[in-house]
Amino acid sequence: MTAETTNAETPLGAKLKARIRRDGPIDVSAYMLACLADPEHGYYKRRSAIGAAGDFVTAPEISQVFGELIGLWCAVVWQQMGSPGRVNLVELGAGRGTMMRDALRAARLVPAFRSALSVHLVDSNETLRDLQRVTLAECGVPVHFHGDAVSALTSASHIPDHPTIVLANEFLDALPVAQLVYAEGDWRARKVTVDAGGALQFTLDRGARLDPALLHETPTAPRDGDILEVCADHEAVVAAGLRSRASLAPLAALFIDYGHTATGFGDTLQGVAGQKHVSPFHRPGETDLSAQVDFQSFAKSCAAAGLAVDGPMPQAEFLGRLGIIERASRLMSANPAMASEIEAGVARLMAPTGMGSRFLALGVRSPALPPLPAFEQADA
Fold first, then answer.
1. Is residue 132 within 8 Å of residue 121, measured between CB atoms?
2. Domain covering 45-175+232-264+288-377 in this structure, CATH number
3. Which of 36, 174, 192, 305 could form a disulfide with 239 if both were Cys (CB 3.0 to 4.6 A apart)?
4. How far apart are CA 55 and CA 43, in angstroms?
């Protein structure tokens, strides 16, 4: 889909069209950033769109077992770090606080770990931060709230210089991507413009040559029409932030997101509204935009920052190694009235043709730390 699928105008749509008419076409990454993070009308600035009544449902909202397993995973990582007396537990893109709530509940099995915790939730959405405060109001550990991932990770005034565990579920997919199109024997930037009828649509910049640094190594030579997606924030934001944190004290991070294991060609930019896929131009500012994560590129950025990388592996394999079936069975036995609901949720997380394979888990750590839990079995 190249043009808007609805005639309904939004405040951000009008603002973007005025900007384009004034300054010319904008990069896809700039369009995506504006749709998600515009200070007045950005999707992630005010909307609470997570959950059954929202635009999309994340793994923690599907089953409490997901967050509980992550909490126990964190406890084992803390032990790998030498069981320090203080440890930061940071969640990027913390949503409604559901995963952290479930993780902290499971962490009660390791009292010394819970006693060491200082929790930091990072989310640009003010509405969600308010929900997080309610969700975690009685969690029993210190909780701090931050609006920006870069400043939180890089500044000791935001997060202390203690060993740090970072969690990020469906965070990377919301980072803006640039799209490059191979045409006429060269890569061209894909941009967003306004057509003669006043609708947003894609166009190609056939003028300025691209910076070679934008191009990733691909397994095959490009052909006309191939699209390559590049996320500058992998290196400039996430990898740099993790590197800064790891320079202060031991670091371990877990990223779970939908994506692909190897860099390749394809247009993965998508809009989601009302739990249905829509055009990226559908009601700008009121539609969630995301793109598949290029885990190979992200891993390279982390490795270039001096960090060790474990994985990626499919979500189903990761959760299976953490014992999701056994934990779900115990939960079903303790709550027989909810057994069918628990079973259905776990099945959705593990579905071989759905979330179980489309979502990948990747570990990032200080090189001095051993392979992170579940990943240490990868080569066994």
1. yes
2. 3.40.50.150
3. 305
4. 11
Nearest CA to 358 among 327, 322, 320, 312?
A: 312
Give the Cα separation of 112 and 21 in Å (integer): 59
- The two counts, helices (H) then strands (E), for the chain are 16, 16
For helices 324-334 and 339-350, the axis angle rounded to 10 degrees is: 170
All structural domains of the chain with their residue ranges: 45-175+232-264+288-377
Q: Note whether 318 and 59 are within 8 A (CB).
A: no
Asked if residue 5 lies in contact with residue 279, where contact means CB atoms within 8 angstroms, the answer is yes
Residue position matching structure tokens 């390749």: 264
Which amino acid makes up residue 100? M
pLDDT of amino acid 51: 47
Mean pLDDT of 256-281: 92
Single-letter amino acid, residue 125: N
Q: Tens of pLDDT along 172-224?
A: 999 999 999 998 888 999 999 999 999 999 999 987 666 655 666 777 888 99
pTM metric for this prediction: 0.92
Q: Read out DSSP for 97-116? A: SHHHHHHHHHGGGSHHHHHH
